[in-house]
Amino acid sequence: QVPLVESGGGSVQAGGSLRLSCAPTGHTFSDSCMGWFRQAPGKEREGVATIDSDGSITYADSVKGRFSISKDNAKNILYLEMNSLIPEDTAMYYCAADTPYECSNMDYWAFAYWGQGTQVTVSS
Question: CA-CA distance, 6 to 86, in Å (whole number)?
Fold first, then answer.
């Protein structure tokens, strides 16, 4: 069973917005670092934003001021609000959870629990 399920991806024009959601299928991950990562074709997976169990938030420089990560603790759902999208944001977006040494490092290799991904395509 996939531990996390993402939804909300799609195709938008530059300047548009999308909201991604991530829901756990079993474990709640309430005490874990959770984050959004993305991978474009031919590129390495990279961290987009993470939120730690204490609410601390980190963003990649490339998305600061445009993306917002949040978590509904009552529903255990993770969100990523993406605004002012640009073509360079085009990628498969993944939700992940774990207890890495440092959540703010956004090291994708430190996360064991992943969703299957949702595609985001931004056209110019």
Answer: 21
How far apart CA 91 and CA 34 sit, in angstroms, is 19
Q: How far apart are CA 95 and CA 37, in angstroms?
A: 6
Amino acid found at 8: G
Per-residue CA distances from 7 to 16, 23, 60, 104 (Å): 17, 9, 21, 24
Using one digit for the tens of pLDDT, what is the confidence trace for 46-61? 999 999 999 999 999 9
Whether 62 has a pLDDT exceeding 90, the answer reads yes
Q: Write the burial class of residue 6 (CB in 10 Å: 0-12 exposed, 13-18 middle, 19+ buried).
A: buried
Got the DSSP string for 37-49? EEE-TTS--EEEE
